Amino acid sequence: MHAPTHSTGADLSQAPTVVGKQPPTPKKDARFWLIFVVLFFCCFLSALDLTAVSTALPSIAADFESTDATWIGSAYALTSTALIPWTGGLAAIFGRRPVMIGGILIFALGSALTGAAQSMAMAIGGRSVQGIGGGAILTMVEIIICDLVPLAERGTYFGIIGAVWALASTLGPPIGGALASAGAWRWLFYLNLPLCGLALVLTFIFLRIKAPETTLEEKLEQMDWWNLLFVAAATSTILGLTWGGATYAWSSYQVLVPLIVGIIGMVAFVAIERKYVKHPTVPFDILVHRDAWIGYFTTFLHSLVVLAIVYWLPAYFQMRGASPVQSGAKTLPLSFTISPLAIVVGASVTITGIWVPQNAIGWAMATIGCGLLSLLKYDSGRNAWAGFSVVVGMGLGMLYSATNFAVLAPVKPARQPYAITFYGFVRSFGQLFGIVIGSTVVSNQLQKNLPAAYVAQYGELVGDATFALIPQIKTFAEPLRTEVQIAFNDALVTLWQVLVGLSGLGFLLALALKHIPLTMEVDESWGVQVKKKEGGVQGAEEEKVGAL
What we know:
By secondary structure, the protein is mainly α. The protein has helices spanning 30-64, 70-94, 96-115, 120-148, 151-181, 187-190, 192-206, 216-222, 227-243, 253-275, 290-319, 324-329, 332-352, 356-373, 382-402, 404-408, 416-449, 452-458, 466-473, 480-511. The chain has two domains: 29-211 and 279-511, Growth Hormone, Chain: A, CATH 1.20.1250; 225-278.
């Protein structure tokens, strides 16, 4: 299959489609469901590691006596974000299965490097490798769903995948906390190795997906080598954002230079892709519809809010004196709210064909939930923090399944894998911003709010030393301990208030969405690999699973 050529905006709009009047799709057989078993497992593997480190960060920082613990999360998000567009391009040229296998192998390598790290620098390097693999895995999961399932039926499948992602993301903190409490945070990464082995076996046996029948020369001709410019520019931009306000001041050259260079590089990349590249990695015709722009931006906001909460809600419990495993357990009201809501909303879209109200309601609940979190005190009781977590979890869970329809509904089936790849890039970029903004806000506010007695005895916090401070709080004598807890809580309140504003913006944007009917078509170029009919004409194939 050759990479797609440019399409006009007129190609993107779907003819009005009423889901209830469409002919039913053929029954999906065992091959189809076995592929989805592989996808669910790979998605869980990728998502679990992204957030499991949140409760282990204070222990990692203490072991290495480092103030760069935030980079354990940022490095993963950085590499997965920068390489997602190229991952989608490679999948279009070489096929889905080889890229998935490559992603699993790279993820396993990064896990081994991080687990064996003897310094913070080595741990950050390992996480960078992990990010490449994790981003590739999740991108392939979503592309393959687009290949196999028409958009009108995709709500249930995206809902399940969203629930798997959400469950893994929110179960990660308790697992990371349990291992950190046992002084075994390295096993958080070592345990990925047998899981990756199982994922490889499942992928080799069951992930039988059609692949492009082109020669190696034709594949190389389709490679978009300008992606190297994008990767460098995106990495430079993300470095500037990560350093800003934490490692260096926003006005410093260490922040401004990479930001400026990165932004100029990305602008140059866009200009080159539009005018000179025959097979662009991200075709620009997927961006012409207003709903698509709203969908991408609200996806960015959703990912930002989710990661900020997943990283800093466990910190709220740990600064109160909870152990890592206890803080992870106290995030369960959030965990077990997000996943069911993701499934319910996905199923509701499949049944009704309606997807706009779910976006608005989800953002309304997320806004209210973040507002409630801002009411938490350093000594709030269980009813408060558990109840508030449930409310925000309901909103975020709904959005896990709802935001992608604004991106995919305006796009023809053949273009949807490219749209979902860019969707994954935007989501990953939002996750990075969630880590960066959360760390910047909390660190800056904590430096302002720390009591004079702490500064006199221990000095001011240098750089991003917030996670390194958390384990020390319980060792302080009163009244210093309570004063530091109040200062920490006030810093978190500021973060929750920022998230209220961002969620409110998402709600306003969701109100501007216009319903587009969901198509029952799929791209016949991809799908389940089929067998030759016995005694049939050479090249005759069985009916493609999941297609009309």
